[in-house]
User: Which sequence fits this backbone?
């Protein structure tokens, strides 16, 4: 069964002005869609033809991995945000953030720094390990923490296609604006999931 581009609950203009309709037209409408289309073509006639997206991300290499992981990562990223942001991290996640990073402010600084210092294209992730400890990791290109046995909690796309139309070279401004649209209710719930 072919993979499909998931609908955006807030539409392509819903994240204005943090991510403009023009940016989303390319980022979601062209890039995310292209990863879905490429994945569908690449898996045809392979052992991944009927596999789940998670299984493909975990087990594939090369072009199939790149496109499958980019489908997974973008879906997770676009689900991590909502117009105007929502809620607070929630008691459990807030406590884990304090325990692992010292404070929410320190966590945001560290996550932002990971975003600004990631060289080239990639993703910054807040992840949970098997014991519930949090960590911030950088992944290049299509990298996905599931491959390391880590549970993704939040991600930020720092590929240039994510921000260049709106922020040009000012990646730190894009990251600063990102915090205003994070759906903490969703992120907090992800932390609670095993
Ligand atoms: Mn992207």
Assistant:
């Amino acid at each position: 069964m072919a993979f499909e581009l998931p609908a955006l609950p807030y539409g392509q203009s819903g994240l204005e002005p943090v991510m403009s309709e023009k940016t989303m037209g390319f980022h979601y409408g062209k890039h995310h869609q292209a990863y879905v289309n490429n994945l569908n073509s690449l898996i045809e006639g392979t052992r991944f033809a009927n596999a789940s997206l998670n299984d493909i991300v975990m087990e594939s290499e090369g072009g199939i991995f790149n496109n499958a992981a980019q489908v997974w990562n973008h879906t997770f990223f676009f689900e991590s945000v909502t117009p105007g942001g929502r809620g607070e991290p929630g008691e459990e996640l807030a406590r884990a953030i304090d325990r692992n990073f010292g404070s929410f402010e320190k966590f945001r600084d560290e996550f932002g720094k990971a975003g600004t210092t990631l060289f080239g294209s990639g993703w910054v992730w807040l992840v949970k390990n098997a014991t519930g400890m949090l960590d911030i990791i950088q992944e290049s290109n299509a990298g996905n923490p599931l491959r390391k046995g880590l549970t993704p909690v939040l991600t930020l796309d720092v590929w240039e296609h994510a921000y260049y139309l709106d922020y040009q070279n000012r990646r730190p401004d894009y990251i600063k604006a990102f915090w205003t649209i994070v759906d903490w209710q969703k992120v907090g719930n992800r932390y609670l999931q095993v």
